[in-house]
Design brief:
alpha/beta, NE0471 N-terminal domain-like, 3 domains, 3-stranded antiparallel sheet, 11 helices
Length: 289
């Protein structure tokens, strides 16, 4: 089992970055695959000028290293893409393409490796590009997210020229115009349905069981539904509905999905309405003091 407390392995056959990465307490270097390291988080570093020379090493490493996370490709010359793709096809290892990460400086490698060490590979940013009206963000686990600027309220007002005037580090993407900062949570919330539902349920838990229960009841009454009607449509007992509306039963994803169906809406819309209702009730309570 991989753990974030073990040092990561950086396989650097050409010694490209061994003396350039700072503070190596989270990783160790190798020039080849070590039998003892095959299950650990591993990273391969190659140069674009010699990629095809080492292509077979890369592809065989994919099979030997179960913990191979990223193949860093230092761009120091135009990449012979066709030659590399031919080798990928020859050795039957198409999954390598999802692990390739082009970099221009050692600091980019360090950001990714340290994110994996801390277990924050899904929370840290490794690369950002703008494609016309879309923002494309890659996390340190090499998963890419594409989202339209129009879908992010704080960014939709930016002109095409201002969209390209951004800076990013491992934590945030920033635009000076409008003083906007985005992190991976915002990107994943917009692009990853499961992540959004998880965050919405967390938001309701932060409001607490009493406030969430009031919101469930309030929303039912807005739809002019009785507890009995909710129970029938949601395949719950009236007692379960009552317990949800008094805070004596925890609202989980399954119960929320059933309630959403009973209200004739989808889960995401229902969670959003619950959150808005909680905020409204909380605001009314605060204003009454």
């Amino acid at each position: 089992m991989l753990t974030t407390t073990e040092k990561s392995i950086i396989i650097d056959p050409e010694l490209s970055v061994r003396h350039q990465l700072s503070d190596g307490k989270h990783f160790v270097f190798r020039i080849d695959v070590n039998e003892a390291d095959k299950l650990k988080n591993s990273f391969l570093v190659l140069r674009s000028t010699t990629l095809n020379q080492y292509a077979e090493l890369v592809l065989r490493a994919m099979k030997d290293l179960r913990g191979l996370r990223v193949v860093f490709l230092i761009r120091d010359k135009k990449l012979d893409v066709d030659g590399f793709l031919d080798k990928v096809q020859e050795l039957g290892a198409p999954t390598i393409l999802s692990k390739l990460h082009l970099v221009t400086k050692p600091e980019q490698i360090q950001t990714v490796v340290e994110a994996w060490y801390r277990g924050e590979q899904h929370d840290q940013i490794s690369h950002v590009t703008i494609d016309e009206n879309d923002l494309i963000v890659k996390d340190c686990a090499m998963k890419s997210y594409r989202i339209s600027f129009e879908k992010i309220p704080v960014l939709c007002h930016l002109s095409p020229s201002d969209r390209n005037k951004y800076k990013f580090d491992g934590n945030t993407i920033s635009w000076a115009k409008g003083k906007v900062d985005l992190d991976m949570d915002v990107i994943r919330y917009e692009c990853d349905l499961q992540f959004r539902r998880q965050k919405d349920l967390e938001a309701l838990r932060l409001y607490g069981p009493t406030l969430t229960a009031k919101a469930i009841k309030n929303l039912r009454e807005q739809y002019s539904l009785t507890q009995g009607e909710i129970a029938t449509k949601a395949a719950l007992s009236v007692r379960q509905v009552s317990r949800l509306e008094t805070g004596n039963q925890k609202l989980n994803a399954s119960a929320a999905s059933r309630l959403a169906k009973a209200h004739g809406t989808d889960l995401d819309s229902y969670l959003g309405k619950l959150i808005n209702t909680c905020a409204k009730i909380e605001g009314e309570q605060l204003s009454s003091y």
